[in-house]
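Posting this for the archive.
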Amino acid sequence: MTNLECSLCKEEYAAGTIQNLCTCGGPLLVRYDLERAKSAWSRDDVKRGPNTMWRYAPLLPVEAHENIVSLGEGMTPLLPAPRAGKRIGANNLWIKDEGLNPTASFKARGLSCALSMCKELGISKIAIPSAGNAASASAAYAAAAGVECNIFMPKDVPQANFIECKAYGANVTLVDGLISDCSKIVASRKEAEGWFEVSTLKEPYRIEGKKTMGYELAEQLDWELPDVIFYPTGGGVGLIGMWKAFAEMEAMGWIGSKRPKMIAVQVEGCQPVVRAFEQGKARSEFWDNASTVASGLRVPKPLGDFLVLNAVRESGGTAIAVSDEELIDAGIQLASDEGMFVAPEGAACLPALEKLLKSGFLNPDEKIVIYNTGAGLKYLEAYSTRYPRTASSEQDKLGGLITPR
């Protein structure tokens, strides 16, 4: 790591210092000496690292190995999905299953890196607003790091997230509102409480953990990127991180200049990035009355929207929205097709893919990778709408209740 750089005004900040946003309000990105990395670290060296995301440690910001806070995150499987692909007309479909991370979502990557840096920088208290899975991951990694964790979540988050956070010992506040309302509370109280804010892109290190999804995908595909990547986009940091990873790998000579079409997937009830993309704008506008059963996609105004839009446009990709009904049906269909029970956010990518195949935007023979960002078991409330557990429904199915003797 050489320095931190503002993604908007390009002002630089010293490495190894506690930072949130740039003075201009832009997110800070970690920069590295890639020429030095190129000469000192090769693709062949990667396989000798641990079977976690920390195999890419030379291009992660933690300096001292003893400060790494890891629960075994990363190296999630890249699985073929032939039956699901055949059903929707994709001949070379793969699913990167991030639901097999600790705390059952991709958020483990970002919070592992962020809490490692908290440990390295001597930060003892953090605060985070979250729609669910980031809260679970921050609570888990804060517990592992011995750091106080203060969480603010909408009161209707999945029950699994609330219970997890309490079990990990976090201080949890449920808010009658959206993640944007939770963010306002953290911003108003953090100075008085002495909290370091680890909100999405409001510190430089979560994105570094999430970028390992890009390194990992390249390694799993023998350093040849796919033609298309579908990414469920709430805050969009995973997509931004992968785009950053691709640039770093090219600079080190690990991959060529080819890039996948990056597809940002949102929902009809909250689609600020899709609207901005369609209108040719550089930034999104706040999405009023955001609503969706996919809690991770209920982000009415992503801070890094301009970085998402840049990656989508530079890659020749697109942004597309689907309905709640479509994504729940797709999640259930994928489970029966492939034996993968995915989060509604990941499931949203399937109807999005089907629409882009039907429109001719994508070719059926392209190698397509869908990122499932979490485990379906964390969203039982959302999926239960298709499987109401009542006596009458059981009687309808069985012709009467079975009473054990």
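The mean pLDDT is 95. The longest strand covers residues 148-154.
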